[in-house]
Amino acid sequence: MASELTINKGELIFQEGDRGQGFYIVAQGKIKVFKMSFEGKEQILHIYGPGHTFGEVPVFQGKSFPASAMALEPSIVLSLPREVLVQQIEKSPALAMNMLADLSRRLREFTVQIENLSLKEVPARLAAYILTLAQEESRGSQKTTMQKSHGSAANVVLPVSKVQLASLIGTTPETISRGLKKIEQAGFIKTDGKTIVIIDHQGLEALSHTGRL
C-alpha cells in the first residue's frame, strides 16, 4: 500500500504549508522535522530514525503540514496515502488506538520540550536529551547505540552533530560543548567524541528535573 522513496541528504520531503496527501515511515536513515522563522532561524522539533512515523497531522486534520521535513543523511521513507490509512483505521480499531497512543506520547514530549526551552538552562536540557536517547534505545526504536559496560554505566552515541543538537534544544554549538563539559565535571557522564558514557543515571535525572548541578 506504500510507495518507497529514496531521499538524498539535505533533500526536503515536504515544506511547512504543503498540502498533506499522506504520512511517512522512516525505513532507513534520519529525518529531521523543523520550523524555520522569517529570519532564517531553524528550530528542530524531532529527529526520527528507522521505525518512526511522521507527517500524520494532515491525515487526521485534512490540512497542510505544520512543519517541514528533511533528510539528515541518505534515507529511504515509505509514503502511505491518506485514503489508505483512513480505510485501514476503519477496519482496525487497534490501529487507531496505537496511533493515538503514539501521538499522545509525542504530545507529552512536546510539553517537556517547551518546558526545557523556556524554563531550564542548557545543562538540564542536555541531561534530558541524553536520558531520552537512553529511553529510546531501551524501547529498541532508534538506531542509537547503547551498550552496558562496567557497573550501571551505559554508552549512548549522539545521533546528530552539535550544530543539529543545538538547534534541537535551542542553543549554540559552543554552549553545547560547555554544557557537556560541566556535566562531565560533575561526574554524571564521560564524553569521547559523539559517545557519552552515563556514569550517574540518578544524578543525570536530578539535573534534568531541577536544573542544578
Describe this structure as you would to a colleague.
By secondary structure, the chain is an alpha+beta fold. The chain has 7 helices and 12 strands. The protein has helices at 57-61, 82-91, 93-119, 122-138, 162-169, 173-185, 201-210, and strands at 3-7, 12-14, 22-28, 31-36, 42-48, 53-54, 68-71, 75-81, 146-148, 154-157, 189-192, 195-198. The strands form 3 sheets. Strands 1-8-3-6 form a 4-stranded antiparallel sheet. A 4-stranded antiparallel sheet has the order 2-7-4-5. It is globular.
How would you describe this structure in keywords?
globular, Arc Repressor Mutant, subunit A, 4-stranded antiparallel beta sheet, 42% helix, 213 residues, alpha+beta, Jelly Rolls, 7 helices
**E-strand count:** 12
Instruction: Provide the gyration radius in Å.
Output: 18 Å
- Helices, by number, come to 7
Instruction: Assign the CATH architecture of the largest domain.
Output: Orthogonal Bundle
Mean pLDDT: 85
The CATH homology group name of the largest domain: Winged helix-like DNA-binding domain superfamily/Winged helix DNA-binding domain
Taken from the alpha-carbon principal axes, the silhouette is globular
**Low-pLDDT stretches:** 141-151
What name does CATH use for the topology of the largest domain?
Arc Repressor Mutant, subunit A
Summarize the amount of helix as a percent range: 40-55%
| Cα end-to-end separation | 50 Å
How do the SSEs run, as a string of H and E? EEEEEEHEEHHHEEHHEEH
Number of domains: 2
| Beta strand % | 25-35%
